[in-house]
Specification:
The chain has about 675 residues and is of the alpha/beta class. The protein is about 35% helix and about 20% strand. It is built from 21 helices and 28 strands. Strands 8-9-7-10-11-6-12 form a 7-stranded parallel beta sheet, with helices on both faces.
Length: about 675
């Protein structure tokens, strides 16, 4: 109430006056903000936005009006919030335009989350292509490509890249052992996009060679993306890049670094201050400017297959990106996959490999019991897990340096059986398999952990146990007793060693956990090769050879390798000859006959039986599609359907599946999981 002239004004306390003024200021700011939101930008008032919506039928671009207050910050690639379905949804601005095809009134953007352009046009287009390739939703791919925002890190400036002092001739000298590498380097420096499949030789320092490739591309003014299976490989290439180029020319993108450090390195790349990226799966989407090279190591490692929808593989992402951005492509490894062989077969890539004479000079690889002399010296070698020839090889190697023993299983004694009749030992409580966790612990069940110290065989009554399948701990225990004066270390599971010194020691490791020796291993021993070949998998022989080649690849100059197994096994024969290329050709021919990838394109659809029936009713498949199944899975309420088409119709199959997913999403039907070209069947 306003006081009259005859009445004195009421004196309010100072705190009340301050709060009243603060309230009036907030009200004025709210009115100003609403007025600003009502005013639309004069230049390019329409923003084309992709929203973070996992629904297939909403996987498209939406037009929004750009408020005048966001005119400068809502640039292509920036993060925004927009109103959709009655709630604020995260999204990215793809482009700004002067007009929209929408005839009605456009809703304005709700908020500018960050003006930082983190989604480049090239990466946005790549996400669309990957989603189309794997019949997925582009929002799922963008979550793989762009890390979560870290506001504090975003405010920090990125230091500029220091001057480069790299001699391109160093790359030619490093790659001089590979005759076909010189043309690849020449094309890379000239800006042309060469494509190659690289088969590295035994004992090769492959991180150093990859670093020289990235240095050659950077010297030519172009960036590189190097994708590796795990963080230990990233650390090796990171160190090699620092040694070759110096500090400040590259970044390492990996989740183990933490959200702040990962986002800081990502911003350095998106701002154009770093043009070499090394990392794991997510590095394939790094927004490198002027991209000149994409390379990956060990493409047969299943760590390259993304476990989240739409389940893309790094190799396919990089090949799509190389084609899209006109970059060189390199697929390398000690072993060659069937997919890499397909790139050579179709002429898409050329081969880079060592001459046969150079391979023979680098390593001597053998199989126990493969010669008449070995059989005469040790007639029981075929039945022994570690025959005499293996002990002799270890003694020879320990006189010269460390020895690596690869065993395919971790643990101690993973399965037990009756010593007399070989009947599997089972738990009396739940019928689960019994195991040993150490040399002095009693047997216990792997399922319910019930101990069975007084076990006896139900078939013959014997109380003795044997271990048909043993792990690295049991192997280390046995070798420690055979070589009591030699240190024995294990590397597996949660205790993986990165490096070992040049001193003589026995290193027992599982596949993928082998530490790198400073000067290379003097000898590599491969045990239980039968187990790797006997896995129930389409890729079992190929995967076994890959694991063995990776172990033999750690040999030092003049080292030796010995595999304990059947000398007639084709995979072991390929290892002895170091001929993974020939083995890949043979595997590819068998897959062509069986119409398996890469000869054909496959898609698996997993879900409840009713959901699979609904999907089949909506699918408009190519005429030559083979429908296999459905077949039951480990879950009794879930079935799996396999769709197979000739390779030329793979794109049509993916589009058909994507369209069916859009229809199912719009009708809110029960979801199913679709995997195009799954890594394992």
């Amino acid at each position: 109430m306003t006081p009259t002239p005859d009445e004195p004004a009421l004196e309010l306390p100072g705190l009340v006056r301050d709060r009243a003024a603060e309230g009036r200021a907030k009200a004025a700011a709210t009115r100003a903000r609403k007025v600003a939101e009502a005013q639309i930008a004069e230049v390019d008032p329409v923003a084309r936005v992709v929203l973070d919506l996992p629904l297939a039928h909403l996987d498209r671009v939406f037009d929004y009006a750009v408020p005048a207050a966001m005119a400068e910050g809502a640039v292509p690639g920036s993060r925004v919030k927009a109103r959709f379905g009655g709630q604020d949804v995260d999204g990215f601005v793809l482009a700004r335009s002067a007009a929209s095809d929408h005839e009605g009134r456009l809703a304005p953007l709700r908020r500018l989350v960050s003006p930082e352009p983190v989604l480049s046009p090239a990466v946005a287009a790549l996400c669309e292509r990957v989603a189309e390739r794997y019949a997925g939703v582009s929002a799922d791919v963008r979550r793989l490509a762009v890390p979560p925002r870290h506001a504090t890190t975003e405010k920090e400036p990125t230091p500029p890249e220091p001057p480069l002092t790299y001699d391109a001739g160093d790359a030619e000298r490093a790659w001089s052992a590979y005759p076909a590498a010189a043309p690849f380097l020449a094309h890379l420096r000239s800006g042309h996009p060469p494509r190659a499949v690289w088969s590295a030789g035994p004992g090769e320092d492959w991180p150093l060679l990859l670093a020289h490739l990235a240095g050659s591309a950077l010297a030519a003014g172009r960036g590189s993306v190097l994708c590796l299976p795990d963080h230990r490989d990233v650390a090796r290439v990171d160190a090699a890049l620092t040694a070759v180029l110096g500090e400040g020319h590259h970044v390492a993108l990996q989740a183990d670094a933490g959200p702040a450090a990962r986002y800081r390195e990502f911003l350095a790349v998106s701002r154009g201050e770093r043009r070499i990226v090394v990392g794991t799966r997510s590095a394939a989407f790094a927004p490198v400017r002027d991209l000149g090279l994409v390379a990956m190591w060990d493409d047969g490692d299943d760590l390259h297959a993304e476990p989240r929808a739409p389940y893309p593989h790094v190799r396919e992402i990089l090949l799509l990106r190389a084609e899209q951005e006109g970059a060189a492509a390199l697929v390398g490894g000690f072993a060659r996959t069937v997919e890499a062989q397909h790139l050579l077969r179709t002429g898409w890539a050329r081969e880079i490999a060592l001459p046969r004479a150079a391979v023979r000079e680098r390593a001597l690889i053998g199989i126990s019991g493969a010669t008449d002399v070995a059989i005469a010296r040790d007639p029981s070698a075929g039945a022994a897990r570690v025959p005499r020839e293996a002990h002799d090889a270890l003694r020879w190697g320990l006189a010269r340096g460390p020895a690596l023993v690869q065993t395919p299983r971790s643990g101690y004694a993973l399965r037990l059986a009756c010593e007399r009749c070989r009947t599997p030992a089972r738990c009396r409580a739940c019928a689960g398999p019994l195991e040993l966790t150490g040399p002095t612990t009693p047997p216990r069940c792997r399922w319910c952990a019930t101990e069975a110290p007084g076990w006896s065989c139900g078939e013959c009554g014997a109380t003795g146990l044997r271990a048909p399948v043993v792990g690295d701990a049991r192997t280390a225990d046995e070798l420690g007793r055979s070589f009591p004066k030699v240190p024995v270390v294990s590397s597996s599971g949660d205790q993986v060693r990165a490096r070992v010194g040049p001193e003589p020691r026995i290193v027992v490791a599982t596949p993928g956990a082998e530490p790198v020796a400073d000067d290379g291993y003097a000898v590599v021993l491969l045990l239980d090769t039968w187990w790797a070949l006997g896995r129930d998998s389409m890729r079992a022989p190929e995967e076994a050879l890959r694991r063995w080649c990776n172990a033999v690849g750690l040999l030092g100059p003049g080292g030796r390798a010995l595999a304990v197994g059947d000398p007639a096994a084709p995979a072991l024969q390929a290892l002895v000859r170091w001929d993974s290329a020939g083995f890949a050709v043979r595997e590819a021919e068998e897959r062509w006959e069986a119409r398996l990838p890469p000869a054909a394109r496959l898609a698996t659809v997993t879900g409840p039986p009713g959901a699979l029936d609904d999907l089949r009713a909506l699918l408009a498949l190519p005429e030559s599609t083979e429908v296999l199944g459905p077949v039951p899975t480990h879950d009794p309420d879930v079935e799996r359907l396999v769709l197979r088409v000739p390779r030329a119709l793979g794109t049509e199959l993916a589009r058909s599946l994507a369209e069916a997913q859009r229809l199912r999403s719009a009708r809110k039907l029960e979801p199913v999981r679709i995997q195009v070209d799954p890594w394992e069947l």
